Amino acid sequence: MIGTVHCEWIIYDSFSLKDKRSVMKRITARVRQQYNVAISELDFQDSWQRAKIGIVTISSGKIQAEKELNRVLAFIDSFPEIERTVTVYEWL
């Protein structure tokens, strides 16, 4: 089972693309270190307070994949400098 999540972030303390990329790099690096997922920025690369992120995991079943994705999203939500707005799950 392949589970994917697309979510949009608002980065409130970002006043330039450099600020945004600094926050994004720190969060995505920590996610890659702690969880068995792939994460990447998908859209809004030129917008300095908005981002769209894709997260993918592969598991033997939907329940395990969903648990892993929910753990990652909970971890991301623990960062005070971002707010997750739109979240869409897909299963392949």
Secondary structure layout plus pairing:
Elements: E1 2-11, H1 17-34, E2 38-43, E3 50-58, H2 62-77, E4 82-91
Antiparallel strand pairs: 1-3, 1-4, 2-3
Structure report:
The chain has 92 residues and is α+β, with helices and mostly antiparallel strands. It has a single domain (2-91), classed as TT1725-like (Alpha-Beta Plaits), CATH 3.30.70.1120. It contains two helices and four strands, in the order E-H-E-E-H-E. Strands 2-3-1-4 form a four-stranded antiparallel sheet, covered by helices on one side. Strand 2 and strand 3 form a beta hairpin. The radius of gyration is 13 Å and the shape is elongated. It comes from Metabacillus mangrovi. InterPro entries: DUF503, TT1725-like_sf.
Entry keywords:
92 residues; alpha+beta; Alpha-Beta Plaits; TT1725-like_sf; DUF503; DUF503 family protein
Write a compact overview of the structure shown:
This protein is α+β, with helices and mostly antiparallel strands and 92 residues long. The protein has helices at residues 17-34, 62-77, and strands spanning 2-11, 38-43, 50-58, 82-91.
Strand-pairing-aware structural class: alpha+beta
- CATH architecture label: 2-Layer Sandwich
Going across the major beta sheet, what is the strand order?
2-3-1-4
Would you give the CATH topology? Alpha-Beta Plaits
- Report the total helices: 2
Order of helices and strands: EHEEHE
Low-confidence stretches: none
Number of spatially distinct domains: 1
Q: How would you characterize the largest beta sheet? A: 4 strands, antiparallel
> What is Rg?
13 Å
Task: Specify the CATH class.
Answer: Alpha Beta
Task: Classify the helix fraction into a percent range.
Answer: 25-40%
Q: What is the terminal-to-terminal distance?
A: 6 Å
Q: What proportion strand? A: 35-45%
Secondary structure: number of strands? 4
Mean pLDDT: 92
CATH superfamily: TT1725-like
Shape: elongated
Protein name: DUF503 family protein
Organism: Metabacillus mangrovi
InterPro entries: DUF503, TT1725-like_sf
